[in-house]
Write a structure and sequence with these properties.
The protein is built from 14 helices and five strands. It has 344 residues and is mainly alpha-helical. It folds into two domains: 88 residues; 173 residues, Intergrase catalytic core (hpI Integrase, Chain A). It is globular and about 90 Å long.
């Protein structure tokens, strides 16, 4: 049995049972394509450590996303992560997935060291404000009953205040919102079945109230931000708005630029709260992918008392002339109507 046959007959049905997103399925298929390019029609029962090493070497020689680059170590790690459960399924399996017993032992995959990139592409507060101001002039989407500019202003403002992904914002339905407890329950995101809750601040509530009044709220399952066109058009409109806002081309970011500003702001006050707000189990992900270190550290670093002023003050005290000693009154009493003062 080959890897693709194992995937299609045994592993894919389990993925579909757990309602996995199309993106995850595409990633598995991409890994299998790379495996076949590297090792051909290798029988899965014959897989050994040397084949994993050969697969890693093949991946390391593949071109990267940018022209003239090779595949990043993080992408190689992802391919190995997608390969591992397939090999486990071919062996004895796990509690979640029954194994086939074809592969006697799963070879150690030995992933390359993970690399992190700090969120230097996080937009600044001024850039976000300029983007929202430029978005008010938009003519799309053509949604009945609401001006496009108001739609964009509310969408961007809501993302700014909650840090949710653009996909979650577009999927959001009125039934997910609890105005009384000021929460938003994301019931499904990127194929994840477990729901999570987002806290809504005053400005986020104002946005939802405005959208509620404009839309004339008819059905609980209606989308709050109803986008009727494809996502390519959405990103193209966002690009035009940022250009109109005067944001330099190398600083123009997708909606994640707002999310990264949100994460950086909360991290500067409470890293644990940022991890929870961004919904990442591993704090390293929130710190190393969604946190602009300068945005977090600069306010605190700049608030440190300048040491040179303290040095100058000490030098001034050392170089100033020594004043004469001031008498210190030790005892002051009266005897025979005569004051007696003892001093040193």
């Amino acid at each position: 049995m080959q890897l693709r046959e194992l995937y299609e007959k045994h592993y894919l049905p389990m993925l579909q049972e757990y309602d996995t997103s199309p993106r995850t399925i595409r990633e598995y298929e991409t890994t299998i394509d790379a495996w076949e390019n590297a090792l051909g029609t290798l029988d899965i029962a014959e897989v050994k450590k040397k084949h994993i090493v050969a697969f890693k070497k093949y991946l390391a020689a593949c071109p990267g996303k940018k022209k003239g680059t090779l595949m990043s170590t993080n992408t190689i790690r992802k391919h190995l992560r997608m390969l591992n459960p397939l090999l486990v399924t071919a062996s004895n399996g796990t509690r979640r997935c029954k194994g086939l017993g074809i592969l006697k032992e799963v070879p150690y995959l030995d992933p390359p060291a993970e690399t992190f990139r700090n969120a230097t592409d996080a937009l600044t507060l001024e850039e976000i404000a300029a983007w929202i101001a430029a978005a008010k002039t938009s003519k799309m989407p053509p949604i009945a009953g609401i001006k496009a500019g108001i739609w964009w202003e509310n969408l961007l403002t809501f993302i700014y205040n909650t840090g949710i992904r653009i996909g979650s914002a577009l999927k959001m339905r009125w039934s997910w919102i609890d105005f009384e407890f000021r929460t938003l329950e994301i019931r499904k995101e990127n194929g994840v079945k477990t729901a999570y809750t987002v806290t809504l601040n005053n400005e986020a509530i104002e946005v939802l109230t405005m959208m509620f009044n404009i839309s004339g709220y008819t059905e609980p399952n209606n989308h709050v931000f109803n986008w009727t066109m494809n996502l390519r058009t959405l990103y193209r409109q966002a690009e035009r708005q940022q250009k109109l806002a005067g944001i330099p081309k190398n600083r123009r970011s997708k909606f994640h630029g707002i999310r990264k500003y949100f994460g950086s702001e909360i991290t500067s006050k409470n890293p644990a709260a940022a991890t929870k707000a961004l919904r990442h189990v591993d704090p390293k992900v929130a710190t190393n992918y969604y946190t602009n270190q300068r945005q977090v550290s600069d306010p605190f670093v700049n608030a440190i008392t300048p040491i040179r002023k303290t040095i100058d003050l000490i030098d001034l005290q050392k170089n100033s002339p020594t004043p004469p000693p001031t008498p210190v009154l030790l005892h002051h009493y009266t005897a025979c109507n005569t004051e007696v003062i003892v001093m040193f």
